[in-house]
Design brief:
The chain is α/β, with parallel strands linked by helices. 32% of the residues lie in helices and 31% in strands. A hairpin with a 6-residue loop joins β3 and β4.
Length: 171
């Protein structure tokens, strides 16, 4: 049973099977070494839980605390550490995209880059636009030039079928 226990789970209340434990109060002061049953009684009187915080110590260290609140704060802390850093955002355009609309896309790209996200700039060609790939290339160069103060080119512009794409990373 001991080996199958997950390392992240802590023993609480009746799950603590040792005879004596070192107890820390809910305020953080040491109450000393006492019998587990006595420590459990003190925790119950306060309406709190007895939680084993250092099972490898001799004797094990237990703290009187609100276990539900403790688990909630642990989950919150873990989720902050796992927050994604530098997602990939895409700016989609066509060679015929108007100048004002291109500026809106560039400003949005600048916003993404200042938030440390990568930006994939893609220009899609439809129908007869394939005959004017130069227009799309000019547009791509313009976008890269406008964002050059906050971005560096991670992968240079390349054409794949009916699309030219380029990845920009924050400086």
């Amino acid at each position: 049973m001991e080996n199958s226990r997950n390392k992240n789970t802590q023993r609480i209340n009746e799950m603590i099977r040792v005879s004596q434990v070192r107890v820390i109060s809910s305020e953080g002061t040491q109450l000393g070494v006492m019998a587990t049953s006595e420590a459990l009684a003190k925790a119950r009187d306060l309406g709190l839980d007895l939680v084993e915080v250092a099972p490898d110590a001799k004797p094990p260290v237990c703290k009187i605390m609100n276990y539900g609140k403790f688990k909630y704060q642990q989950r919150k802390k873990d989720s902050k550490q796992q927050a994604p850093k530098g997602r990939l955002k895409e700016l989609r355009m066509r060679p015929k995209t108007g100048e004002a609309d291109v500026m809106v896309k560039i400003n949005k790209g600048r916003e993404f880059l200042t938030k440390k996200d990568k930006v994939l700039v893609s220009i899609t060609f439809r129908g007869r636009e394939m005959a004017h790939i130069g227009e799309g290339t000019k547009l791509m160069e313009y976008v890269i030039e406008q964002l050059s103060d906050v971005a560096k080119i991670e992968s240079p512009p390349k054409q794949l079928g009916k699309k030219i794409s380029c990845t920009l990373a924050p400086k």
